[in-house]
Amino acid sequence: MKMALRACLRTKPGLTGLLSQLSCSGHAAARRAPALVAQRSSSSTSQKIKVDFDQSSGVAVMHMQSPPVNSLSLEFLTDVCIALEKLEMDKSCRGLVVTSSQPKVFSAGLDILDMYGKSPEHCAEFWKAVQEMWLKFYGSNMITIAAVNGSSPAGGCLLSMTCDYRIMADNPRYSIGLNETKLGIVAPFWFKDTMVNTVGHRATEMALQLGLLYSPAEALKIGLVDQLVHEDQVLTTATETMTKWLAIPDHARQLTKSMMRKPTIDKLAANREADVNNFVNFITKDSIQKSLGMYLEM
Amino acid sequence: MKMALRACLRTKPGLTGLLSQLSCSGHAAARRAPALVAQRSSSSTSQKIKVDFDQSSGVAVMHMQSPPVNSLSLEFLTDVCIALEKLEMDKSCRGLVVTSSQPKVFSAGLDILDMYGKSPEHCAEFWKAVQEMWLKFYGSNMITIAAVNGSSPAGGCLLSMTCDYRIMADNPRYSIGLNETKLGIVAPFWFKDTMVNTVGHRATEMALQLGLLYSPAEALKIGLVDQLVHEDQVLTTATETMTKWLAIPDHARQLTKSMMRKPTIDKLAANREADVNNFVNFITKDSIQKSLGMYLEM
Amino acid sequence: MKMALRACLRTKPGLTGLLSQLSCSGHAAARRAPALVAQRSSSSTSQKIKVDFDQSSGVAVMHMQSPPVNSLSLEFLTDVCIALEKLEMDKSCRGLVVTSSQPKVFSAGLDILDMYGKSPEHCAEFWKAVQEMWLKFYGSNMITIAAVNGSSPAGGCLLSMTCDYRIMADNPRYSIGLNETKLGIVAPFWFKDTMVNTVGHRATEMALQLGLLYSPAEALKIGLVDQLVHEDQVLTTATETMTKWLAIPDHARQLTKSMMRKPTIDKLAANREADVNNFVNFITKDSIQKSLGMYLEM
To answer: Which parts of the chain span the membrane according to its record (chains A, B, C) (predicted)?
Structure first.
């Protein structure tokens, strides 16, 4: 979450480290430019997401290219969901690799600008888009592989965890994790459920309470990512790995994936509205808005 | 599952490897002989299963000796269940070691011949026997130790996972796993539940989606087996390990085992009929039967 | 549990090892002295528990000093709960370290003297106190760190598992685990749930069935403790670790902790009375009382 990266002034303790990380990714600087917001338009799909679909292999690669750090804004999330839906409906598309075109970052997470100074209605729409992204990716019939070629905090980590397999760049300057608490906010239950399904109950309890960001080596050790390769090899390894997954008959694989994930998906699907209300009530609190505002002014 | 090993022609990708494995286990060759089916009779209990019960130690050893690869046919499953029930009712029998008398294989899994060209009624009866085997083993009051002295795909892996402890022969030519998807079929929810209870959610998700067969070393690493020993030592190690388990008062151990497994057992117990119907509907589909037939003709 | 350490004569197999462990902790010898019981009084809080609260750091240290082995008696449990409640209500107290002032033992577990020759009413009151301790610790809003500076069987292991983080003395003579079955008794479902949340389903199944006591190194390997340090460093490491946890905003950390633990806590909260009845029915059985009596006479 950019929210996670920017949000609350109450979060001094871990902030210095995070900020230095931010500036190293060029994010803080770029985000300050109002121009970025102005660039948004409903026709930006082709700008912010590039999808290469290789008909012969049945594999698509989704390049996230929303400068500077692939923040998950309402607009970007909408574009991602539309792109995913198109691929999902194309029966010839069996596999999807998700990666970043931005240097040093996979995705910095949710966009704070969709939470600050916005109407409750806007915040609700934003949160529905976050839910939609998760529901679509976690429940995708396609084989999904995250080519995590940079840092992946909060919502970026969530996105990678929705995939069937995670390959991360073996660069110790990158990190991955759900670091919400460090910023004074709480990962919702379905972020938590996704992490429990990935690394188990105990590792999740530690990770979420401490808002841990793991180095690639640590992430591999607890199972938050499945494989580390040199930075230059992330995408090619993802493509090679895909071959192994494509060898499995789709129908059987899809039913199996659904059997594993359906209970977790159903939990959010049955509670979307309450979850939206929770988020809106939290984010529109004066204290939280004030914190967001002070942070943005910095 | 022999079904898993033979079933669908749609499964070309992984099949070559599996077939070579089959021929090395002598299975494919032997199974082609119709004589095998003819050998079946209701009095074959003593032929296909040998139970050695040592009254002094309270430990029985069940040798599966159904050539060539201990396929779990309706007949064999029935024999296994009857043998298990007898031991279960004998209060002097506290522990059971399950092993194979066939070379190189523990059990190749469910028998395709009970699924091909059979009436829905037969298929239903067969599936009830698979359920019965699982219910009896997973819920056994005895200490159960699997002495996995050979390959153990699909139903063979399931059988070993129902036990309290798994010792496998440290021979890299052997493998173990639920490889159903590789053959275009899907492990039912209770196979999945058993694996989740054994290796956790994430490892199960990978294993089941990819239909992974693990080498003994890999199986040990993810916790699919508990111990590796030299091929010659599997049975003696099982007996030695049993001593440790026998040191625990039966009543406390049984209540503890039940506490751990009852929720999983109750799930199938409450859904046996629906699960049978699912299986019969799937297996009697023209497309599946055709695939089975073509494979058998090969 | 001292119960676990003393209880049933049916438990010969593992008992020798346990008894030698007991005598090494000075427990068996000291416990034989009836004087210990006589020392009990309702005003002993300050005697059996010493709480050092450092207002400047917001961290309290609870020293358990109930000779000889910090047995969890009704009285001691009550004192612990009162002390915890006071700290919980003090908003300036954000973290709690639990440790032992007794040599070689963290806590030996539940006190058999509260289960032997007592009225059903007394046993019920005792069990409610055990539940209360677990509910208060597992649901604490404070950061809780167990400084496990000695052996920690049964109830002692449970207490440490309720904490957010466990640091154990790296002394191979110490051990930790839920060893109830070895003594012919069964860990209740909420002991089991706590362990599953800590080390997963499979490790718990093995640990509980076999009543395993782990060496510090083994405990670290399965995740039963989080860190090993030299005996002299346990408490200082706990304090240093606390600093990392204090860096997280309380509100976010508390909500996250509750999200992880609430379902487990709710299970007992909704079934306290049935759980008390189960315990009382079991412990007041003639056969169990006889075993307890014979053991105490030894």
So the answer is: none
The alpha carbon of residue C256 is apart from the nearest alpha carbon of chain A, in Å, by 6
Question: Cα angle at A136 between A249 and A102, to 5 degrees?
Answer: 100
**Quick one: pLDDT band at residue B47, thresholds 50, 70, 90?**
confident
Task: Give the residue from chain B lying closest to C182, CA to CA.
Answer: B248
Using a CB-CB cut-off of 8 Å, the residues of chain B touching A223 are: 202
One-letter amino acid for residue B25 of the chain: S
What's the pTM? 0.87
ipTM value, please give it. 0.85
- Chain B residues with CB within 8 Å of chain C CB: 164-165, 196-200, 223, 226, 244-249, 251-253, 255-257, 259-261
Query: pLDDT confidence of B224, banded at 50, 70, 90?
Result: very high
Give the pLDDT score at B20.
Answer: 27
> Which is catalytic among the residues B58, B150, B155, B156?
B155
- What is the mean pLDDT of the segment spanning B35-63? 69
Chain C contacts of A200, Cβ < 8 Å? 200
What are the pLDDT digits (tens) for B184-196? 889 999 999 999 9
Contact C61, C51 (CB under 8 A): yes
Tell if the CB–CB gap between C247 and A14 is shorter than 8 Å.
yes
Tell me the C-alpha distance between B24 and B173, whole Å.
Answer: 10
Listing DSSP states for chain A in one string gives: -HHHHH--GGGHHHHHHHHHHHHHTTHHHHHH-THHHHH--TTTHHHHEEEEEETTTTEEEEEE--TTT-EE-HHHHHHHHHHHHHHHH-TT--EEEEEE-STTBS--EE-GGGTSS--HHHHHHHHHHHHHHHHHHHT-SSEEEEEE-SBEETHHHHHHHTSSEEEEE--TT--EE--GGGGT----HHHHHHHHHHH-HHHHHHHHHHT--B-HHHHHHHTSSSEEE-GGGHHHHHHHHHHHHHTS-HHHHHHHHHHHHHHHHHHHHTTHHHHHHHHHHHHTSHHHHHHHHHHHH-
Cβ–Cβ < 8 Å for C51, C97: no
Give residue-wise pLDDT tens across range A168-219. Answer: 999 999 999 999 998 888 999 999 999 999 999 999 999 999 999 999 999 9
Q: Collapsing DSSP states into helix, strand and coil, what is residue B65? A: coil
User: Which residues in chain C have their CB less than 8 angstroms from residue A210's CB?
Assistant: 244-245, 248
Taking only the tens place, the pLDDT of each residue in C131-150 is 999 999 999 999 999 999 99
What is the per-residue pLDDT for C46?
Answer: 55
Which residues of C participate in catalysis according to the annotation? 110, 155, 179-180
Contact A197 B192 (CB under 8 A): no
- pLDDT of A4 higher than 90: no
Mutate to test the interface with B, among C178, C209, C222, C291 (most CBs of B within 10 A): C209
Q: What value does the mean pLDDT of chain C take? A: 86
CB C251 within 8 A of CB A184: yes
Q: What is the pLDDT of residues C26-85, one digit of tens each?
A: 333 333 222 222 223 222 345 899 999 999 999 999 999 999 999 999 999 999 999 999
Residues of B in contact with A165 (CB under 8 A): 206
Please name the chains neighbouring A, where neighbouring means 3+ C-beta pairs under 8 angstroms.
B, C
| Confidence band of C229 (pLDDT split at 50, 70, 90) | very high
A231 is catalytic: no
Q: Among B11, B192, B201, whose Cβ lies nearest the Cβ of A249? A: B11
Residue of B86, B85, B74 whose CA lies nearest to B48? B74
Q: Is A110 a catalytic residue?
A: yes
> Which of C13, C204, C206 has the CB atom closest to B247's CB atom?
C13
Nearest-by-Cβ selection for C186 from B165, B223, B252: B252
- At B209, list the tokens: 């989606």
The proportion of chain C whose per-residue pLDDT surpasses 70, expressed as a percent, equals 84
